[in-house]
């Protein structure tokens, strides 16, 4: 049986010590954000995740969801846990007070989400998608729709879904076939089949609100003819009570590699009543409001699962007795030394710890920028924060999930054969984590978004939101003695990033394949540089506290930074070389030479 | 539904064109090894894998093995397939003719095994372990035991297992507790519990022969007090017929992440009758005969699963229509372009193709050296070949499985969301492949074996079996025009390998943690250099044939080599940097600083 401990101390370090609550306090409504409030939320959400969600993780995987006659039964205990999360308000922390939410910063949502997904990612998808749907409707819906639907979404009585994918189109939404025909009474009749719909059908809420993209009659072909509709499972009457069943049915659920407690549905819309959200033919842009938040969420999911996997690998490495330290017996009174004495096991543990703490810094940095972009009083601050969020969203999504998945595999490896059997729960983390590299846009698409869209946007303006502070930091700390061992390495890695950015941006103008070929390596190179910058900042925070009572924590921060710089940051050199080699070997390779031979 | 095509053409390239059959023909009994024989075997084994084993792969995963009252039922169809593989002789290609085998080179076994494991790795374990057990008994057993057991093993009537692991000891076999007490009649009574026993119980054969390591009464503690015993499920009577049931019982089977068609058993020995194999207290050395062959096998398993995963990703990439090429529409008559036009998809496909073909060259190189080490008439040739096999065994095991697993994940990624659902079979490849990084010694142990044992052995003699031919090749081809773009890169990577070898060997003398800390990176660096060397050789073979009727194949070889050199070989630079950073960050890191926080 695995275990879970909410990473309160480290989250608190990042929020309060590294970035500082004042970042949030300065924003609109920020006066509420006190130290005590943050502590209370972290502690309570952590406890809830440890005690309520986590015990359902393995059983939920084993039992999975059951489909019968259009209905879906979630695993035992999910309903009670759902009621409990709704009552506690953890699922609506950042929803506006106007609609019954707590109006707290997005950042708090992010920390809650990491813990929820660590404890039970399959469960976490149910409230998670509702949060995305809430954001979509609250920003783009008419007042009428908002009044009718938002309060019950915040209360958790009604849940939300995103219905994008069809069997023949995932990435390429321009091909979608689902149709919308005006019903003459202000609404539309929606017809078509959507697949891979998370939470498309389940028994947790009394109503399910599907946010469906479809092509209205007579709309242009391609991506510019797509509109967004809200299609409730049950029609909501004028008085807010539930009316008749809408013509939307769950045809089946998928048998998946993991997240088995989450129902992934095939949904048939057969002239179902739907309400236009936003303007006609502007559905894709609207959907991206939700999608971008979801992408940050998915990064966080990968992070959460990696963290719980690490925790279990760590405790196994401390307990499992096997072999003796290479430099001589460490625990003569035991039958063997715990495997944490072995350098290769330490390498695995430190790789996990380092990336997980790296990624937490990255995720919360961007989360706070989301809050700044939405709530700062200063339009310039809002703008720069928004630019940074645009730039970093694909990085958070893809890097946290690529790395997150790798970390679950390292954690499994620490267990040896015991990791491969279901009992210890390690293989479930691997299976659950794997989806995060795929959904809400595969990581290849994220990389293309970063390099093809975000890099050139507004003549590089988004990039400046990152390059500028890093450049300033490097210049400002060239002679900071505490950072002497780090700064030359940071400057070198940053130089590599600048050089590939300039090179590929230029080459890409005449040959877009240069961008496509470099994109994935570029995203990883970028992320490593970003993380190196954050570790240098973390060292500055930790250094004065190494002799405090929390010496293990703070000295650990510095030593972890050192491990990152010495052992992981060198990856930037091979990524640099691979990117600079260009696209030719890829693009000139003949299709018939791929085989199979 | 996935598909499988045996990679006959590429295997044939490696065997016949790259290395040449004359390598095998020169060996004892090599006159039989004709072109036609090889073709016939490749074709027939390939067909068998495609038509008999592969159709049982997905159903076997779904159904799994069933345990009931000490008996294990394998999935539907396994029994018939097993009978069929036994009748065809594919499972005993390399067993000696003296015992009824075909006496063919180990190399042929290796190619058969790659295909068998690609088609159905879970099934492949049943005959695979018998082959290892056969090797063990045929080399170390008494004449009496050999006569009694080997013929029926070769016939496939009786199968074999390796019983090493106990709940508290896997890597550290010195801790094992299973006991052997002389029964006064020349045999022993074996008592203890073994776990993770592949094929420990099943319904495919009439008898199961367990090769069990145990501590004989009064034996020294630790690894030097371990002996090897043959414990049959049914006692074999003097006339060779089956007698009474031995006191060995399957207590349960594991629920695993993958290879669900393979029964992984907990075995209870309760005073079971066992026969000593080899000398008392020399069991671990004996077991390593089997283990080393098994390690090469496991590398091959990782390779096989990667290959089938690649094939399916490739055909999906050619069929799936999504988006348009970045440089303009490629297939205007289709609703969208096939995703193979996208640079990032090509990157994924080429990465898979390149590593898979790399690893096939590596595996077959070492396989042929195994044959040379066993069958050459020249003792010096035997010695050098044996040295190379010792050196490369951990590399084949760990590199082919680390890379193999990564390739299954890339293949899944090409499918997007469709890769995550069970239907397409891609997620099964990931789950099945994952065990190969663990069993027969985790890949961390392989790395330690390479650096801690093989590197320093006989003052570096094993290393010379690799360094010498590579050095010669580099010197001999400095001015070969066909290799102009490759040789400087090969020389550079080789230089890095030499430098880290010298550095760590020296540092390791005073501080063995330096070896432990570098080992995994070193193994990967070593493998990349070895593969670079083999690609350069492959280019020399392919270059004169690029204008033949098989231009797609040969030009593809050269372009694949180019991709390897430009995009994958640069990894050696970051591995080099990480290794040279030493062990300090790992070893000085305080245990209490690992958290969890």
UniProtKB/TrEMBL annotation, chains A, B:
Span of domain Acyl-CoA dehydrogenase/oxidase C-terminal: 281-450
Cofactors: FAD
Domain Acyl-CoA oxidase/dehydrogenase middle: 162-270
Pfam families registered for this protein in UniProt: Acyl-CoA_dh_1, Acyl-CoA_dh_C, Acyl-CoA_dh_M, Acyl-CoA_dh_N
InterPro entries in alphabetical order: Acyl-CoA_dh-like_C_dom, Acyl-CoA_Oxase/DH_mid-dom, Acyl-CoA_Oxase/DH_mid-dom_sf, AcylCo_DH-like_C, AcylCo_DH/oxidase_C, AcylCoA_DH/ox_N, AcylCoA_DH/ox_N_sf, AcylCoA_DH/oxidase_NM_dom_sf
Domain of life of the source: Bacteria
A GO molecular-function descriptor: oxidoreductase activity, acting on the CH-CH group of donors
Domain named Acetyl-CoA dehydrogenase-like C-terminal: residues: 466-589
Keywords: FAD, Flavoprotein, Oxidoreductase
Stretches that traverse the bilayer: none
SUPFAM superfamilies attached to this UniProt entry: Acyl-CoA dehydrogenase C-terminal domain-like, Acyl-CoA dehydrogenase NM domain-like
UniProt EC number: 1.3.99.41
Gene3D superfamilies in alphabetical order: Acyl-CoA dehydrogenase/oxidase, N-terminal domain, Butyryl-CoA Dehydrogenase, subunit A, domain 2, Butyryl-CoA Dehydrogenase, subunit A, domain 3
Record field: catalytic activity: 3-(methylsulfanyl)propanoyl-CoA + oxidized [electron-transfer flavoprotein] + H(+) = 3-(methylsulfanyl)acryloyl-CoA + reduced [electron-transfer flavoprotein]
Domain Acyl-CoA dehydrogenase/oxidase N-terminal as annotated: residue spans: 40-157
Family: Belongs to the acyl-CoA dehydrogenase family.
Role according to the record: Involved in the assimilation of dimethylsulphoniopropionate (DMSP), an important compound in the fixation of carbon in marine phytoplankton, by mediating the conversion of 3-(methylthio)propanoyl-CoA (MMPA-CoA) to 3-(methylthio)acryloyl-CoA (MTA-CoA).
Protein name: 3-methylmercaptopropionyl-CoA dehydrogenase
Biological classification of the source: Bacteria, Pseudomonadati, Pseudomonadota, Alphaproteobacteria, Holosporales
